[in-house]
Amino acid sequence: MQSFANKVVVVTGAASGIGRALAQQLSMQGANLALSDVNMNGLEETRSTLHGKGKVTLHTLDVSNRAAFEAYAEQVLEDHGQVDMIINNAGVALSETVERMTYEDMEWIVNINFWGVVYGTKTFLPLLKARPEAAIVNVSSIFGIIALPTQSAYNATKFAVRGFTESLRQELKNTNVFVTTVHPGGIKTNIVNNGRMKTSMTGDKSLEQQAKEFEKLARTTPAQAADVILNGVKGGKRRILIGPDARLMDRIQRIVPVKYSDVFAWFLKKMG
């Protein structure tokens, strides 16, 4: 997909962060947008920052609700008449050890981070296949490539998104639908403040302390991330790594696929 002009693009989690930045850049590039989130006030703020001339619709959507997603797809088709790309961006964070984690917390993150991607993909796939060219962009994480302590649930969902999407890409190889996974490193968003951060990777710390730690590590802005994602789609990249930290972690994992945890344990010890 070389241009987003006059395309209809669905973006979940568009009330802030990467989702908002994607909406801003897509709007400037002439796209029509169907934006969703659980936070309608945030969506309204996103719309107020858009400067393109394309049509923009806003919908409150809980991506973990399959029936709501199916109804949303019907509404988007009614509003826009077509769908050319979906970016399954909505996601949440959970930091806790396996031993202390509740099943409720595990189900919460799996329903949003994994099932939300599955519902978005399956619900919109028939509409995408009806277009001359289309794209599915599923946002995983660098934590879909490497695993760290207290991130087991988050890792599980992001590894699952990666596996699901890579299989889907092979199934759609000879069709009009391009498929890619996105693996951001630390991005300056509110994911920590909006997550369930109970135990940090460097010990028991308050949410405020964890947010400050994350802010130090997050070197990439949402605008930079959106730029990399959209250029990756235009360039046909099947895996999009965002940020120098993501590229470094990916490289270390390739060099020492089993012992990379020792490298990161040493780094986390220095942080603590």
Automatic annotation (TrEMBL):
Keywords: Oxidoreductase. It holds the Pfam family adh_short. Belongs to the short-chain dehydrogenases/reductases (SDR) family. InterPro entries: KR_dom, NAD(P)-bd_dom_sf, Sc_DH/Rdtase_CS, SDR_fam. This is Short-chain dehydrogenase/reductase SDR. GO terms for cellular component: membrane. The keyword Oxidoreductase applies. Residues 7-190 form the Ketoreductase domain. GO terms for molecular function: oxidoreductase activity.
